[in-house]
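Structure in, sequence out. Go:
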């Protein structure tokens, strides 16, 4: 282990860290000197089942590196269980410095076919989960006058995608949650930022590969390993990035993006006010040149990752 890592001595909770992006973030944090709580319920991509194995396996990997880690198998989607995740950090390491909200599931379905259960399950894990775990740490952060949140959002929410109303709504909600935390808690020296990761993982392993073009696309995506996300997460967790707060980043292979946040792009004004008819005759035609296309993430990120 390095004697002076970027997050030396910090206690970091990483949810959903039994595999994929979470695992690589947990390992990278440990390599840079953090003590890590590895949370994972060991469920399938759709959230079914539980297995203590994945979390413990990552803990064993960290200990093999000479680091310190503890496993936790509580669900982020239950408020009491989420509290136990943070309590594991306090009981094991005596404090909490960084929360990485990474746990997630998918229940993809076109909107007109989506069931209440498919909506509920995804919102519960991504949005409620990020809130529950963040809230459980908030008072500790306030009392110690420091703390750091890193949330995983998605271009499915920031931009759009087919068949993911539940996931997209949750992930855009996470971005707003992060900004609200940043605003409310900056006076306590607490920061909150988001990362939208592009990475090959179990969660996108169901992409169809029936045509040569689809197979080629999947091979390109596979270059975007979860390990590519970890350097930004570690840097955001460190004191080096003390002036970075309330931001949204994306990572795609070797690219790091700062993502825009909604701002007015054009306006129209009538001193006498508006009627439905004048909105139709004047406002919408004047604004139409600045309308946004019905983009999906892939329409915006059109070039191959390098």
């Amino acid at each position: 282990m390095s004697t002076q890592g970027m997050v030396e001595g910090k206690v970091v909770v990483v949810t959903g860290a039994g595999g994929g992006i979470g695992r690589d973030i947990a390992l990278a944090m440990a390599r840079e000197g953090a003590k890590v709580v590895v949370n994972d319920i060991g469920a399938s991509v759709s959230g079914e089942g539980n297995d203590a194995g994945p979390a413990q396996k990552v803990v064993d990997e960290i200990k093999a590196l000479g680091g310190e880690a503890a496993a936790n198998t509580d669900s982020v989607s239950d408020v009491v269980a989420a509290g136990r995740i943070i309590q594991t950090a306090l009981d094991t390491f005596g404090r909490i410095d960084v929360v990485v909200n990474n746990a997630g599931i998918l229940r993809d379905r076109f909107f007109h076919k989506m069931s209440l259960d498919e909506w509920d399950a995804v919102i519960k894990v991504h949005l409620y989960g990020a809130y529950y775990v963040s809230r459980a740490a908030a008072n500790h952060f306030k009392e110690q006058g420091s703390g750091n949140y890193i949330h995983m959002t998605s271009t499915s929410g920031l931009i759009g995608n087919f068949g993911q109303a539940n996931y997209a709504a949750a992930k855009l909600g996470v971005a707003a949650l992060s900004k609200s935390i940043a605003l409310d808690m900056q006076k306590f020296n607490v920061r909150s930022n988001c990362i939208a990761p592009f990475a090959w993982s179990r969660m996108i392993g169901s992409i169809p590969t029936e045509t040569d073009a689809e197979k080629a696309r999947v091979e390109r995506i596979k270059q975007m390993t979860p390990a590519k996300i970890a350097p930004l997460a570690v840097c955001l967790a460190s004191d080096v990035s003390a002036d970075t707060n309330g931001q949204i980043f994306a990572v795609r292979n070797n690219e790091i993006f700062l993502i825009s946040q909604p701002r007015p792009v054009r306006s129209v004004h009538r001193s006498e006010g508006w009627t439905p008819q004048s909105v139709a005759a004047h406002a919408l035609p004047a604004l139409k040149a600045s309308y946004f296309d019905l983009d999906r993430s892939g329409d915006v990120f059109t070039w191959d990752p390098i």
